[in-house]
């Protein structure tokens, strides 16, 4: 009898222990969800390295690109900063507008940060120095806002895609504003790749329209005194002076001081960023072109950009290169949507060739042959407007992507 009671007690204890284990298993807390708000599981990270001139002469351009890129990622991902189930992480590096520094920073991004994409940079010189690294590491590089034709021309490699317009697109727009049979034009530009390519492209476009380029004058991009250059232009007595320029040390004040327009030489150029427009009071009435001014494009993406930019940056409007930064970000997100999150450079090439996407400047399309984005530019006239402390680019007409299509030079 005692033996039976002992066996019964042992069996009861075992049942209690098993029941307790089952209760623990049933009440165990689930692991934290790794999904996004839409229930999609987040697996891995897309890392993007952005090269920009965050200090130095082109600091304003770098700031515009950075702000535009951050807004572009937010717009393209609906605020989630995720695409195809992957989180997006961005690393910004300052090239200081020095090609050797650009190479160092790009190498750091590729080797230490192990980025999936490179974006940049503010300077054509910096960008040209970095291009070979994109091919060596087989990573897609979105070029923004550098414009030298050689980037998608003689120095092209298949990993390069450019959302920025190139010098030839600028040239077509610039020539359309002033060139014609019998018109004599002098050019003035900085003495480096941006200036050389810009003048060469403009000269071809102007001569195709019957104009004659009578003088090509180049100046040290770091100079502050352009008197000797401008005197040569005055002596040549052209009908127009077409200026290709970028950076803070612009020639506009000296052009005004030397009274070129009073001497019968009309000035034409691409309307620059707002800071440069503020010293272009003497050029009110000038007809030229621009890459972007916030009131010119009429589309939903630009409406969103202007609204959000004002709200986040103390009422400031997006500037010349802000939409370019945004376009680069949108291009990356759209490519990753199509690839379902595959960031392999070799696989993305065929996906991105011919790809169209919506930007603040309207629809852009990467041309298959050289990966240059076909895009709109704007024929404008500088006018004085009440309440605006600088000459305002007013739309004459939008130059369509077909009209501004540059030659294939690669």
TrEMBL record:
Protein name: Substrate-binding domain-containing protein
Keyword Signal in annotation: yes
Family annotation (Gene3D superfamilies): 3.40.50.2300
Signal sequence region: 1-19
Residue ranges constituting the Leucine-binding protein domain according to the UniProt record: 45-383
UniProt key word rRNA-binding: no
Alphabetized Pfam families for the sequence: Peripla_BP_6
Keywords, comma-separated and alphabetical: Signal
InterPro entries to which the protein is assigned, alphabetical: BCAA_transport, Leu-bd, Peripla_BP_I
CDD domains from the UniProt entry: PBP1_SBP-like (cd06328)
PROSITE patterns membership: PROKAR_LIPOPROTEIN (PS51257)
Native species: Sporosarcina saromensis
Family under the similarity heading: Belongs to the leucine-binding protein family.
């Amino acid at each position: 009898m005692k033996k039976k009671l002992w066996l019964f007690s042992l069996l009861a204890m075992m049942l209690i222990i098993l029941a307790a284990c089952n209760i623990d298993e049933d009440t165990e807390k689930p692991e934290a969800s790794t999904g996004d708000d839409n229930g999609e599981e987040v697996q891995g990270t897309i890392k993007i390295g952005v090269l920009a001139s965050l200090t130095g002469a082109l600091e304003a351009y770098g700031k515009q690109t950075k702000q535009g890129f951050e807004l572009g990622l937010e717009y393209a991902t609906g605020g989630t900063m995720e695409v195809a189930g992957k989180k997006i992480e961005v690393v910004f590096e300052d090239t200081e507008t020095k090609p050797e520094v650009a190479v160092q920073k790009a190498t750091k991004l590729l080797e230490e940060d192990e980025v999936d994409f490179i974006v940049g940079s503010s300077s054509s010189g910096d960008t040209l120095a970095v291009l070979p690294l994109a091919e060596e590491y087989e990573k897609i590089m979105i070029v923004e806002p550098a414009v030298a034709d050689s980037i998608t021309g003689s120095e092209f490699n298949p990993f390069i895609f450019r959302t920025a317009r190139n010098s030839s697109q600028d040239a077509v727009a610039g020539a359309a504003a002033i060139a014609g049979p019998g018109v004599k034009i002098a050019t003035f530009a900085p003495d480096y790749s941006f200036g050389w390519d810009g003048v060469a492209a403009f000269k071809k476009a102007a001569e195709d329209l019957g104009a004659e380029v009578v003088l090509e004058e180049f100046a040290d991009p770091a100079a502050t005194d352009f008197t000797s250059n401008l005197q040569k232009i005055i002596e040549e007595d052209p009908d127009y002076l077409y200026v290709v320029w970028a950076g803070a040390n612009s020639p506009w004040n000296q052009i005004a001081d030397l009274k070129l327009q009073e001497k019968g030489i009309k000035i034409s150029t691409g309307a620059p960023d707002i800071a440069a427009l503020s010293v272009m009071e003497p050029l009110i009435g000038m007809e030229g072109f621009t890459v972007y001014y916030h009131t010119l494009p009429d589309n939903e993406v630009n409406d969103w950009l202007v609204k959000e930019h004002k709200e986040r940056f103390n009422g400031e409007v997006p500037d010349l290169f802000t939409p370019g930064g945004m376009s680069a970000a949108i291009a990356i997100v759209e490519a990753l949507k199509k690839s379902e999150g595959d960031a392999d450079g070799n696989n993305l090439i065929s996906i991105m060739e011919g790809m169209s996407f919506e930007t603040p400047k309207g629809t852009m399309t990467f041309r298959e042959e050289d990966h240059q984005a076909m895009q709109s530019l704007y024929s404008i006239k500088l006018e004085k407007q009440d309440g605006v402390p600088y000459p305002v680019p007013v739309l004459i007409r939008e130059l369509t992507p077909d009209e501004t299509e540059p030659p294939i030079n690669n």
